[in-house]
Design a protein that fits this description.
Blueprint (H helix, E strand, L loop, with lengths): L2 H19 L8 E5 L5 H9 L4 E4 L2 H10 L6 E4 L8 H7 L2 E5 L2 H10 L7 E6 L16 H9 L4 E7 L8 H20 L6 E3 L6 H6 L4 E4 L1 H4 L6
Parallel strand pairs: 1-2, 1-8, 2-3, 3-4, 4-5, 5-6, 6-7
Helix pairs in contact: 4-5
Bound molecules: pyridoxal-5'-phosphate (PLP).
């Protein structure tokens, strides 16, 4: 087996063990393979091993890969920061978008999503305990943004995502992910149906699964260390 196939199996084993440890079904946690900075050969390798959902952060890099891999049945997730001048390309080429934290961006995606395509699947990004970045809506503002997004055509609100500040302390990781789960519970209590909690990366997927993640976004543990630009 090649490295990517091995790594995918190891990641699935980690997710499976974490799920078992808290009485969840491993099938309830979807694995999103984050392929940013890696080439189409790496994606083909993971695809050959059965992986179908891939996450990308940079629009131009992603469009090149999407074009090159058109014949594959890939579900493409945009997980990077969204610039308003890139919303049309994102709306036309992706299946999911995880980083919505402003109504303006959601409106632009809604109006750019071609009518012939399925609705764009949306996660609202929530800022959990990270004062160093402004990306993500504050927890207290998530309900209002969710209610507004629900009114927009061609978008389907699926859930919430977060990128908490990195910590090696499992208790801190769990506390951060629990905060996102509580925001989800609050929105659900207000009648907003959400089935997705997008949280957990290579270093903290176990804590995320323990706190209810339904989708983990894994790059390094599948493809290896990224070369920083
Ligand atoms: C890069 C990235 C990931 C993957 O991180 P790893 O630590 O490599 O698993 C997950 N989510 C987002 C939003 C990312 O930008």
């Amino acid at each position: 087996m090649d490295t990517i196939t091995d790594n995918l199996q190891a990641v699935k084993a980690r997710i499976g063990a974490a799920a078992q440890g808290c009485g969840r079904a491993a099938d309830d946690i979807e694995l999103l393979a984050v392929s940013k900075t890696f080439g189409v050969d790496a994606i083909r390798g993971a695809y050959a091993a059965g992986q179908r959902a891939f996450g990308e952060n940079y629009v131009q890099e992603a469009l090149d890969k999407i074009t090159a891999l058109q014949e594959l049945q890939i579900i493409w997730h945009f997980i990077g920061p969204i610039q308003s001048n890139k919303t049309r390309q994102i709306a036309e080429h992706f299946d999911w978008v995880h980083g919505i934290d402003r109504l303006k961006i959601a409106e632009r995606l809604a109006s750019a999503r071609p009518a012939a395509m399925a609705p764009l699947q949306i996660c609202i990004q929530v800022n959990i305990g990270d004062e160093s970045t402004k990306s993500g809506v504050e927890p207290a503002a998530a309900l209002k943004l969710a209610q507004s997004i629900m009114q927009l055509p061609q978008l389907r609100l699926r859930g919430l995502m977060t990128i908490p500040p990195a910590s090696h302390d499992t208790a801190v990781q769990r506390n951060q992910f629990a905060q996102l789960r509580r925001v989800r519970d609050d929105l659900t209590a207000h009648g907003i149906p959400l089935d997705t909690l997008s949280m957990g990366m290579s270093a903290d997927m176990e804590a995320a699964v323990a706190e209810g993640a339904t989708m983990v976004r894994i790059g390094t543990a599948i493809f290896g260390t990224r070369q920083t630009a």
